[in-house]
Amino acid sequence: MSEVGAGTEGRETAAQDLERELSKLFGRARSLSLTFAARVHPGLDSASYALLVHLSGIAPVRAADVVELTGLDKSTVSRQIARLEELALVERVADPSDGRARLVQLTGTGAARLAEVREDRRRQLRATLADWSTVDIEEFSRLLGRLNSDL
């Protein structure tokens, strides 16, 4: 149906359908996140798992930069980093450019466990999308990217 022919009612229905499907997706994502977090370490919660994933792409980094990059408040980041340190998944190291500052980075164990879990996650996603055409995957990825940018 074209944009012109859809009308206000059609657009509202489409928006409600999208909201319902996103709600299902987010619920499943939370559940999977808990599962993956537990596989990295039994004591790891999903929020700290999300931070660990984020750190894997930017570390070594100052905690203050993590606050800025994630949009999380300082106390949340501090608490999550402390938890990740307790679990020996991240460590603080001296900043080579400023001996007084400390950088946060994944430990060897943290990086290895996360890499294993992420590979399993990728394998599961590839299996889920096995019957999808490449064009559909590309279009879905493009639209998700657009939604993420708009949010």
UniProtKB/TrEMBL annotation:
Lineage, highest ranks first: Bacteria, Bacillati, Actinomycetota, Actinomycetes, Pseudonocardiales
Extent of the signal sequence: none
InterPro entries reported in the protein's UniProt record: HTH_MarR-typ (IPR000835), MarR/SlyA-like (IPR039422), WH-like_DNA-bd_sf (IPR036388), WH_DNA-bd_sf (IPR036390)
Domain of life: Bacteria
Protein name: DNA-binding MarR family transcriptional regulator
BP GO terms, sorted: response to stress
SMART domains (alphabetical): HTH_MARR
Pfam families, per database record: MarR_2
HTH marR-type domain span: 15-149
Listed GO MF terms: DNA binding; DNA-binding transcription factor activity
Record carries keyword Repeat: no
UniProt keyword DNA-binding present: yes
Gene3D superfamilies attached to this UniProt entry: Winged helix-like DNA-binding domain superfamily/Winged helix DNA-binding domain (1.10.10.10)
Keywords in alphabetical order: DNA-binding
PROSITE patterns in the record: HTH_MARR_2 (PS50995)
